[in-house]
Design brief:
Pfam families: ADC. This is Acetoacetate decarboxylase family protein. It comes from Rhodococcus parequi. By secondary structure, the protein is mainly beta. The protein has a single domain, classed as Acetoacetate decarboxylase-like (Beta Barrel). The protein contains two helices and 14 strands. The strands form two sheets. Strands 1, 3, 4, 7, 8, 9, 10, 11, 12, 13 and 14 form an eleven-stranded mixed sheet that branches. Strands 2-5-6 form a three-stranded antiparallel sheet, with no helix packed on it. α1 links the parallel β7 and β8. The longest helix is centred in the middle third of the chain and has 10 residues. It is globular and about 45 Å long. The relative contact order is 0.24.
């Protein structure tokens, strides 16, 4: 499964999870920055946009119960016939604190989920720690609370050159934020910039992630 070293996993068996769609209620912090010069080495190849997008998510309710998650896309896939009219994430790094969620990510969406420990509040200060890596974020929201309605697309590489595309739709409320990030790990230090970046805090949201569709050619 396509991943960076932080998401490599030798374990094969996990508690099973229900198939998509996965409805969930969430709180989250998202941030982005211009991709580092070396970020493309950890991206999916092909036409990309030099933007790194990452997020800390607290799933308050989901088909596998509550859990927390950190995921990031070193670069974004550029719009195309296969990707669609909007950029899409390609996620080689994703970690959760739920074993059934690990199964769900790997089985249903070709997402290389691994286990991690989380401490703190994803909309304030939170630390995620895994095997040989650590990420700490502090979100400082500002301005009014506003409605949000939109979607995030994913396009994960699969064997034989295919893509597993899926879409997560979200509605809720958010505030603009500045997000301070510190990340260490075998690859994270090369493409997840330390420092303070623009972002948003999703104060409350309802999300649904649909099934992956495989395209080739």
């Amino acid at each position: 499964m396509w991943s960076v070293r932080e998401s490599e996993q030798m374990r094969d068996e996990w508690p099973t999870s229900p198939p998509p769609p996965w409805p969930a209620t969430v709180r989250a912090t998202l941030w982005w920055h211009r991709a580092t010069p070396g970020a493309g080495l950890f991206g999916p190849g092909g036409r990309v946009l030099p933007v790194t997008l990452a997020m800390m998510v607290d799933y308050l309710e989901s088909p596998v119960g509550p859990y927390r998650e950190i995921l990031a896309s070193p670069v974004l896939r550029a719009p195309s016939r296969r990707i669609g009219v909007l950029p899409a994430m390609a996620v080689p790094f994703i970690a959760v604190d739920s074993e059934p969620s690990v199964h769900g990510g790997r089985e249903h969406w070709h997402l290389p989920k691994v286990l991690a420990d989380f401490d703190g509040d994803v909309t304030d200060t939170v630390t995620a720690v895994g095997d040989g890596w650590r990420i700490r974020t502090t979100a400082r929201p500002f301005g009014p609370s506003l409605p949000i309605l939109g979607a995030l697309g994913f396009a994960q590489p699969v064997p034989d050159g295919g893509l597993a595309g899926a879409r997560a739709r979200l509605r809720g409320r958010f505030r603009a934020a500045r997000v301070t990030v510190n990340a260490t790990g075998p690859t994270l230090g090369h493409w997840m910039k330390p420092g303070t970046h623009p972002g948003i805090v999703i104060e409350s949201g309802a999300m649904s992630t649909g099934p992956a569709r495989i395209t080739r050619g």
